[in-house]
Structures are given as C-alpha cells and as structure tokens.
C-alpha cells in the first residue's frame, strides 16, 4: 500500500516535468511566442532532451525498479525528440549529433550482443530445463520463463527477450498447436466469451489506421510514417499472440499450485498453500482504482464484461507476472471459467486443511 502511495506522486512529477521540457522546447522553435530563437538555445535544448530527460527518467522511473536496458530506448527517444522539435537549419550547426547517436546506439548494440552471448553460453542448460517443463504441459511462455529464472536468475534484460520471443512464437508459429496437459486439470476460460471478436475488431482497427495514416504521414514526414507503421505491425502481432495464448493456456490446477495465465500479457503462479479461500464473487461489477492495484483480474476482454464468478483470497501477496519482466503484487484474484462448478469443487477439494 505504501509503495502505491509513493509511486503515484513520483509518476505525476515525472509526467509534469517531462511535459514541461517537451512543451517549452516545442514552443521555442515551432512558434513565434518568444520571437527569434536566441543564439546558443540549441545547446540548451540538446542538454534538456539528450541528458536531462534521460537522467530524470532514470532517477524517477527506472532506478531500482527496471532494467538499465530501458535507458537505451530513453536515450534514443531523446535524440528523436531533438530531431523532430529542433528545425534542421539549427541542427546543421552541430554536425557531431549523428556521430553521437551512432555511439549511443553502438553501446546499446554491444549490450544486446552481450545478452545474446549470455543466452548462447547458457543455451544447453536452458534447453534441457525447457524440455523438462514442456514434457509436463504446453505452456510455452511459462516454461521458458521458468527455465530462464532457473539458469539466469535476476537478469531483467533476458526477461525482455523472453517476452519478445514468446510473442513471436504465439503470433506466428502456434496456429497448428493444441493445448497439452500431462499433470493436473485444465480449465478453459474463453469459450463462453466474445474475446476473439474483440481481438479481431482491434486488429481490424489497427490495420485500417495503419493504411490510412501511413499514406497521410508519408507526405509530411516519411520517418514518422514508418515508425507508426512498425508500431502498428507490432501491435497486430501482440494481439495475435494474445489470441493464441488464450487458446493454448487454460488455467491449470495441480496438487501443488494453481497457474492462471490470462492470454499472453499476464499470469500468476499460486501455490495452493497460499490460497486462503475460494468463494462466489458477490461484489460490484467494476473495481475502484485502489482495488485494482491489489487485484489480479484473470478475465479476458469481452464485448459485455460480466461479473466475475469467483474470488480467491490469498494469505500473502503473490507476484503477478506482466510483459517485459514487470511484476506487481496482488492479494485477491477474480476470474471466470467455462466449467465453473467443476473448477470450484476441484479447487476447494485441493486446498490444504
């Protein structure tokens, strides 16, 4: 609770400061509010966008929370903001900028190569661990994450790679696969919903937006149009991964744990010893922001989102695994399943006395 209270002012402060930096620099160069651009202003703007903004991002967002790998993205975003905000005639006075960008991206590339080297040297152990887990179930993302945590613990950069690898696997290479469970009971959670229709509508909207905006923006700025096209393609792959993961990863109940992987983007691995009770949900249809911060909602998106059928209370807060290695804690779980009576009685029966 304390972490949540502290986190919100920090994020708000960052949003305000970052917005001020971007807005003031945009007004300086793209409007006549302050008159002609003063001599030496470009140096100040470059310091703002390439040094101050990344440093502020590190201190307020990344430090002690996320992998340093994100700094490469932040620095690149600072360079991109400088090129889009500062007119070219001002940037031409500083020919060293492209070389500075090349050096920064080179360092980022070396870091990527180091990650690849680390994975390759541990690959035999990773494969053995993955095959061992894959022999028990077909939960690709869960199995590969467990293999990485066993052989490369506390490596946040590798967790980002796991997300990307899992996304491409589900989106492109899993269409002919079927869910396989050797140990435990599987419970589907999507067949009585319209989740596939929701995802197809999103993909359709992204595709139409991509085609229309690409041609519109290409006449204005080809670089922006291609960046947007790349992001839209990435978004479509992400939604396809969600669809496939939803089909291939039912909830799994074993004698020791309950695995709840909702699609591709979030999951929770709960030891049965940490489950306090399961009961029929009797609360409101919508959750407050405070409730949502301490809750794992294991339902899939639906055109008409119904109330959860069940609520699971935990003895201790449990990790909710999100994409790119991110985590948060939850003390409650709400969910729906396609066979509610069997799920309720089997989980109730499996809980320790």
Automatic annotation (TrEMBL):
Is Isomerase given among the entry's keywords? no
Q: Which domain of life is it from?
A: Bacteria
Q: Which residues cross the membrane?
A: 12-29, 41-61, 68-86, 98-120, 197-217, 223-241
Q: Which UniProt keywords apply?
A: Membrane, Transmembrane, Transmembrane helix
The name this protein carries in UniProt is Beta-carotene 15,15'-monooxygenase
